[in-house]
Each structure stands twice: as C-alpha cells, then as structure tokens.
Fold:
Amino acid sequence: MKLYKDYSLLAHNTFGMDVKAALFFEYETVDELRAFLLSDEFDKCRSHFIHIGSGSNLLFAGDYSGLVMHSVNCELTVVEDTPEYQLLRVGSGYVWDDFVAYCVEHQLAGVENLSAIPGEVGASAVQNIGAYGVEVCDVIERVETVDLMGNVRVFDKAACRYGYRDSVFKNELKGQYIVTHVVYRLMKSPTFKLDYGDLRARVEAEGVPTLQAVRGAVTAIRDSKLPNPKELGNAGSFFTNPVIERKQYEALLADNPTMPSYSIDDDHVKVPAGWLIEHVGWKGQALGHAAVHDRQALVLVNKGGATGAEVMALAQRISEDIYQKFGIRIVPEVNYIV
Ligand SMILES: Cc1cc2nc3c(=O)[nH]c(=O)nc-3n(C[C@H](O)[C@H](O)[C@H](O)COP(=O)(O)OP(=O)(O)OC[C@H]3O[C@@H](n4cnc5c(N)ncnc54)[C@H](O)[C@@H]3O)c2cc1C
Structure:
C-alpha cells in the first residue's frame, strides 16, 4: 500500500494533463483497501475523492485537491470450469487489453471484439465498455465491490443495470462503491460477431475466423482510426451519440439529407455525434492547445500543453454550435474531474 502527497497524475490520465492530486492512495489487496477506508486519513477526504483506473476516460480540470485512489490488484483466477465456459475472477487493476490477450491465448471467447480498448478491468464494469458490436456486460457474471465503510457487496449482472456505456455505478450509486474484482463468463466455443464495419472482410481475408484473427483485425482497425494517447493526448470518444425523437430527425432530414441515424425504437433514433461535429465545421479545428482530431471528429485531443479548462471550453463551444444548428444537445462521455 502506498500513500503520497502532491502526487503527479501525468502517468494516470491519457489526456496528458500535468496535474497533481493532493493525496494519492494505491493498493494491491482488498484488505488494504478496507483498512484504508476505515482510517482517519480517508475520513478527512470522504467528501472529495475519486477512484480511478488508468485515466483513459477522465478529464482533470486542474490540480485535484482531494484524494485519488487506484488499485494495482492484478489477480486472475478460474473460479468455475465447465465444458461450455470458464468463469474468470479478475482484479480491478488488471490492464483490460492484457486480459483480452489472456482470453484469446487460452481460446476463451467473448471479449476479442473489445481488443485494444485502453483502461483497466475495474472501469470496464463501471463504463460498460463496448466496441464492434459487443458490450462487456454481455460477458459479465458479477461485480465484486466494497462500500465506503469497507463492507463487501457483490452485484449480479441485473443489479448493475447496464445500458449503452452506462451502469448503476455511473448513476444512482456513483461514488458509493469501489469495484475490486469482476467475474466474466468466457465461452469455449466462439460465436463470432463480425457484422460491424469492415471487420468481417478483414477477418475472412485471413481464412476461417479465429479469436486471434478477430483480435488482430480489431487492433489494426483501431490503430488506423484512433490517435494513440501516447503520441497525442486524448480520451477516445469525447461525446456520447445523442438519442433524439424520430419526428425531430425526420424534420432535420429535409435540410440535412445525409444525416445518418440508428433506430432505437419506434419513436427514437441515435445520431452519430462525430457527424454533427463535422457538420458544424469543428473537425480538425483548434481552440488554444485543444483540438478536434482531423481524422476522427468525435475525439478531442491535447496538442501539447492544453489544460483541462481549455478542453472543456472547446467541448462547450462544439455543443453550443450543434445546438444552434440542429437543436440537438450532445453531452460528454468523458468524466470531468474538478
Ligand atoms: C484511444 C481511446 C479509445 C477508446 N475506445 C473506447 C471504446 O472503443 N469503447 C469504450 O467503451 N471506451 C473506449 N475508450 C474509453 C476508455 O478506454 C474506457 O472508458 C475505459 O473503461 C476507462 O478505463 P480506465 O481504467 O482508464 O478508467 P478511468 O478513466 O480511470 O475511470 C473511468 C470511470 O470509472 C471509474 N472507476 C475506475 N476504476 C474504478 C473502480 N475500481 N471502482 C469504481 N469506479 C472506478 C472512475 O471513477 C471513472 O468514473 C477509449 C479511450 C481512449 C483513450
């Protein structure tokens, strides 16, 4: 267990913000975490703390005057093994993509489409990460947590209330539980999901689909489309895709015949936020040291030396312009930390 004062968060956020935490606590075991939650040190910070993963979905407004907590628990154990599936219990600090690599290597199916998503296992269950037609909730069996008094609580999948990039941990129970382990159900016979973009063509070009081929194709597509945070600070998709009333969409189509949409239900459609950003002219444009990526309009980047406030100001300008032009409100997917 480690406790630091005035600790640099530069290595703990993919936006590359050079900010500090007044207090930083890092732990390996659930017992260490529970002991800390019962300490005077934590009591002083109870009203101003955040638990982070690798900071790939965070935007720090500036130095953080509270407590930042982080798990480096990288346990991985098989808790059930049947002819059809394995249940794997994984510590919250395990790097997500290393976990995907483990599954693919052991011929365990279900997470291969989620290859190369930054972050750690704990956040995967908070964020309900998704890509290429798969969401992590498809394979989550249960989520182990502790509350702020150190009591253990296990959430089955239904109790996590998963939705698009959403869970109970982001809403009703935000900040009340710390994810310590996630139990995933991985299948021994794969059901490939390839009907997304050009994934099928890429995978089938290699021959009969395999988990390795899917992982390789997903990683290659992502590398070609998304800026690498090690080279250009970013947090992936900055905004969620807005869901609007079908009537509003049909009215907008008259002036914007190329506006894409995905049907949600009889009355609602989802509109790609990247298309909206591009069509208000922000793609590739900068405001101070923050910019909209020139190939992927949904990604805001730190050109070097940007502050969180600059990125937030850019996001605000984009949202206002979209509202002015289309009457649609877009909201950040990235968590603002103030
Ligand atoms: C280049 C790039 C591409 C991306 N692509 C995708 C994508 O395809 N699909 C996708 O879904 N996301 C994507 N993301 C977003 C990001 O990778 C995910 O949201 C990821 O799950 C964040 O993990 P993290 O460990 O970095 O969490 P952080 O960003 O550190 O935290 C995210 C949230 O989870 C909470 N949290 C973290 N750990 C815990 C814990 N143990 N207990 C309780 N709460 C916790 C934090 O408080 C915060 O609210 C991308 C990001 C980048 C930079």
User: Anything to note?
Assistant: Residues 289 and 305 are 6 Å apart (CA to CA). The longest helix spans residues 308-326. The chain has a mean pLDDT of 96. The first strand starts at residue 2 and ends at 8.
